[in-house]
Backbone:
C-alpha cells in the first residue's frame, strides 16, 4: 500500500514508518520538523518526505495523493509545551484533522487512523480499568481536542463512509523518544548520576506500553473496517517510583530521587491511576501488547546505550 503518516518524524510515527517500509509499503511522511526528526537514516532514504504543516490544506492534499490510508499522528506533545501553548495545540488538532478528512475525500482515501490519547479519560475513571465505554473526562486543551476529533471523525464516517479508527495510546515508551517524556528523562538523569526528578510522591500509576507493541497493534488494525475507538494498552499498571528504581538498577546509577511538587498547570495531566483494557483490540485483531516494563526498559538500554 501507499500510506501517509502525518507527524511521521515524531516518536511513534517514525517507528511506524520504519515498520511499514520494512513490510514493503510505500510511505509518505508529512512533518513540520519543529520538534526534530526521529526517522532513522535508512528509513528516511526509503520514504517520500514532505516538510510542511498539517494546518495547510494544499500541503496535506499533495502529501496524500494516491495513498490508500492516512495515519494522522501530527500533534503538539509534551505536558509543559501543551500547557504553555493551548491555542497552537488545539489548532494543530482541529485544523489538521479537518484538513486530513478533506484531503481523504478529495483523493478518495477510504481510511484514517487517528492518534488519540488515554488522557481523554481524565480524572473521572481513576478507580477503573479503562475500557472504551468508560465515560471520558477531558479537561486540558490537548485531551479536549483529541476527544473532539474522535467525534468529528466518527461523524465523517457516518456521512461520508470513511473508515476511522481512533487509537487511544497508553503511555507509549521506547527508542527515539525525547526527554519531554518520563522514561527517557529518567534514563538521562540516571546515566548522569543526577537527581531523578519526580512530580508528586511517585506512587501514581501508569500503563506503560512499549513502542514495538504499539506499532504492531497499529499495523494489525489496518484491515479492520468501520468506525472504532480502540485502546492500545499493556493492561498492567506500574507506579512511577518503580520505574525510577528499575532504571537506576539497569543503569547502575548512583542518582538520588528528588520528589517535587507538581506545578499548577500540570494538574489536569496528573491523575493518580491509569490502566487500560486492550480487550477490544484483541477481539478485532487477536493481538494485544505483552512487553513487560522490565523487558521494555532493558530493550531501551541495550539499544540506546
Residues:
Amino acid at each position: 500500500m501507499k500510506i501517509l503518516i502525518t507527524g511521521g518524524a515524531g516518536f511513534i510515527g517514525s517507528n511506524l514508518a520504519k515498520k511499514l517500509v520494512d513490510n514493503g509499503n510505500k510511505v509518505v511522511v508529512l512533518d513540520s520538523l519543529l520538534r526534530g526528526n526521529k526517522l532513522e537514516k535508512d528509513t528516511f532514504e526509503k520514504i517520500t518526505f514532505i516538510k510542511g504543516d498539517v494546518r495547510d490544506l494544499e500541503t496535506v492534499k499533495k502529501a496524500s495523493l494516491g495513498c490508500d490510508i492516512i495515519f494522522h499522528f501530527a500533534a503538539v506533545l509534551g505536558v509543559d509545551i501543551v500547557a504553555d501553548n493551548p491555542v497552537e495545540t488545539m489548532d494543530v488538532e482541529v485544523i489538521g484533522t479537518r484538513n486530513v478528512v478533506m484531503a481523504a475525500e478529495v483523493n478518495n482515501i477510504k481510511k484514517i487512523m487517528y492518534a488519540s490519547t488515554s488522557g481523554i479519560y481524565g480524572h473521572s475513571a481513576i478507580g477503573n480499568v479503562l475500557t472504551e465505554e468508560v465515560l471520558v473526562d477531558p479537561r486540558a486543551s490537548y485531551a479536549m481536542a483529541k476527544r473532539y476529533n474522535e467525534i468529528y471523525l466518527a461523524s465523517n464516517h457516518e456521512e461520508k463512509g470513511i473508515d476511522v479508527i481512533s487509537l487511544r495510546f497508553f503511555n507509549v515508551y521506547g527508542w527515539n523518544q525525547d526527554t519531554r517524556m518520563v522514561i527517557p528523562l529518567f534514563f538521562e538523569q540516571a546515566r548522569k548520576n543526577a537527581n531523578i526528578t519526580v512530580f508528586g510522591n511517585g506512587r501514581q500509576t501508569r500503563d506503560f506500553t512499549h513502542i514495538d507493541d504499539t506499532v504492531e497493534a497499529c499495523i494489525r488494525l489496518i484491515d479492520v473496517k468501520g468506525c472504532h475507538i480502540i485502546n492500545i494498552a499493556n493492561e498492567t499498571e506500574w507506579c512511577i517510583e518503580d520505574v525510577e528504581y528499575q532504571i537506576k538498577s539497569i543503569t547502575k546509577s548512583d542518582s538520588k530521587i528528588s520528589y517535587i511538587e507538581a506545578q499548577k498547570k500540570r494538574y489536569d495531566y496528573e491523575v493518580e491511576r491509569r490502566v487500560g483494557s486492550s480487550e477490544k483490540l484483541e477481539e478485532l485483531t487477536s493481538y494485544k501488547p505483552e512487553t513487560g516494563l522490565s523487558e521494555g526498559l532493558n530493550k531501551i538500554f541495550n539499544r540506546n546505550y
